[in-house]
Amino acid sequence: MALATRQRRPGLPSDLPPSSPAYTKFDKKPAARSDGAAAPEDDRGLGWFMPLFALGMLRYMSATSNIVHDCDEVFNYWEPLHYLLYKSGFQTWEYSSQFALRSYLYIIFHELVGQPASWLYAEDKVRVFYAVRLFLGLLSVIADSVLVVALSRKYGKRLASYALAMLCLTSGCFFASTSFLPSSFSMYAMSLSSGLFLLEKPAMAVAVSAVGVILGWPFSILAFLPVVFYSLARRFKQVFLAGAVTSLAVLALSVYVDYVYYKRWTSSVLNLLVYNVLGGGESHLYGTEGPLYYLRNGFNNFNFCFVLALLFLGILPIARKKYSPNLLVVVSPFYIWLAFMSLQPHKEERFLYPVYPLICVAASAVIESFPDLFRDKYNPNDKNLMVMAAKIVRPLVLSLILCASHARTFSLINGYAAPLEVYKILEHHDDAGPGSVVCVGSEWHRYPSSFFIPDYVGQVRWIDDGFRGLLPLPFNSTMGGTSAAPPYFNNKNKASDDQYLQDLDTCTFLVELQLNRPYPSRGSNLSTWEPIAALPYLDRELSPPLYRSFFIPYLWQQRNVFGMYKLLKRKSK
């Protein structure tokens, strides 16, 4: 049907020449959205290619260069996976069937990639390790891309581009994205559920949240509540059914998998919650930190991005029309989770992983709103000097954040990568013969996993170096493997008599960190050993905080103090 145009009344002068086209409603600029968000110039936003490509490149770099940040990642996740693949590996007390605190469903989810990789790389377990890491990076790419595209369609390309840059390059996201941890899996779910929520898919958002909590980290349920409650308020029946069905299905699958591996009917999800919430989990046995721990840690991993994220609530009164309620709902878990975790005595960096993407989103919204701080609220087109200056400041602040992030990432990778690289060298010393024994003393907590132990090595054993806590011990196949309840495990972090090797003469290789200290170390007598590998390792205690935390050209090597991470072989008699 032809469009009818409004004709001018005869007798009135016209400012348009006779040949000028008539004005129609289709000549209007796009109107603002009903939720207050500015309509983007292009409804397609950034599109999918740019987020997938940028995140794909950076997650590949993370998978191939990331260090192992936490011994829990090794002993609670990499080692059980290694046992499922190769029937050898270390077991922690949480995997004893007596306690059954860890879910094997999370492990076998990664076995879906690890098993084909172990067939493909039959004689190279290190490649299997990195194949699983690449899978983790792929999950992060998909989840974060959905979030970026949703931000672009809802709030425009600029905010989404800022968020994309920070998701790619901030140290926190770079390292957490390829860590084999339930908190990282909850982080993927947080990104995906937030993106689906912004794309007006509340049922899918809640279903993803349920998977992130049950398959990932049960305690992260608190961080998902804002999206879940707001989604229920919008479409209760549809959202409730999606969340309930997904929760029951994943929980039932988790219970069945626990039965298969623990050989008794139990729920690791419920056991973990009962132990920590109702059972007085005694997490203080594993160290406590002050209330400012996460603020310091957040600045180290996100620098000024973290500061800007904390300021999001401050700019909300000015930008309420743009960001409330949807973006506020998405970002609010950051504040809830930060406050809750800061009140807990036992703190670890990985506990904050679930809300890492939200830090980037909140900071991006603050940077994008800089001009609004100086604009006349009654004149949205105000272009005074301060508004123009604020527009110039935006890319400068983003550049500062990204440069500081790169400095942090570079410092960690170059300062602490020695353990991974040193253990790789074992592959080239198979002349030691089958049944060789690798001994590790105080460096047990930097053990990179059995994926780095070649087949000719018969055992990895701990030697007494003064530690009096409970150490992991090999899975005992004679007792039942995953279904075993070894008597030497306890939940009080008390050392077992069986955890240390008594006859040190059986050691073929020794791993030691040699630091420059005024007092003698408790390490072994090194006179009978010869070094076959030695790499520098950043000495955290003797290096200045600024220079060890951020790579500053020329000054990083000059101002920091380094020890030597050594792999030694027993001298021939």
TrEMBL record:
Segments crossing the lipid bilayer: 128-150, 162-183, 203-232, 239-262, 301-319, 326-343
Single biological process term from Gene Ontology: protein N-linked glycosylation
Keywords from the UniProt entry: Endoplasmic reticulum, Glycosyltransferase, Membrane, Transferase, Transmembrane, Transmembrane helix
One GO CC term on file: endoplasmic reticulum membrane
Key word Endoplasmic reticulum present: yes
Gene Ontology molecular functions: alpha-1,2-mannosyltransferase activity
Keyword Transcription attached: no
Coiled coil spans: none
Main location, first listed in the record: endoplasmic reticulum
Domain of life: Eukaryota
Region named Disordered: 1-40
Membrane topology of this protein: Multi-pass membrane protein
Pathway: Protein modification; protein glycosylation
Annotated compartments: Endoplasmic reticulum membrane
Pfam families membership: Glyco_transf_22 (PF03901)
EC supergroup of this enzyme: transferase
Matches recorded under InterPro entries: GPI_mannosylTrfase (IPR005599)
EC number, UniProt record: 2.4.1.-
Similarity comment: Belongs to the glycosyltransferase 22 family.
Protein name per the record: Mannosyltransferase
Biological source species: Dipteronia dyeriana
Lineage: Eukaryota, Viridiplantae, Streptophyta, Embryophyta, Tracheophyta
